[in-house]
Write a structure and sequence with these properties.
By secondary structure, the protein is mostly helical. It has one domain (14-114): Helix Hairpins, CATH 1.10.287. The chain has three helices and no strands. The protein has helices at 12-44, 49-60, 72-119.
Length: 120
């Protein structure tokens, strides 16, 4: 998926395409997690749609729940959703930033190779 350090730097238009693809994939994962969380809060915690969405959003981004939960099923769902969200959200940020970080490191490596060739 990414070019080897001995390959030339990816042209800008291909880099932007890679960045857009990773961003779209990450946003899709976030939307899926948000939809599942909203449905779970609605079904298991018996919250109305807007409160379910708000709780799912807050948990997904690491802010914490808004409404108090009643019952074991609601608390178990919220616990597992929080654990999954704690892993998913930072991972999606990493997926979005991976092309930028790779390009930066690749450019540094190319600059270092050129400096070694000049020294000779």
């Amino acid at each position: 998926m990414y070019e080897h350090h001995r390959q030339p730097l990816l042209p800008r238009h291909k880099f932007y395409h890679r960045l857009a693809r990773n961003t779209a994939f990450s946003l899709g994962l976030i939307a899926l997690a948000l939809a599942l969380g909203t449905a779970g809060y609605h079904v298991f915690c018996e919250l109305p749609g807007d409160d379910a969405f708000m709780n799912a959003s807050m948990i997904l981004t690491g802010m914490g729940p808004v409404n108090p939960l009643h019952g074991t099923t609601a608390k178990v769902f919220a616990s597992f959703y929080a654990i999954a969200s704690g892993v998913l959200f930072p991972t999606t940020i990493g997926i979005m930033l991976a092309p930028v970080l790779h390009r930066f490191l690749h450019k540094l490596h190319i600059d270092e190779d050129e400096a070694k060739r000049r020294k000779g």
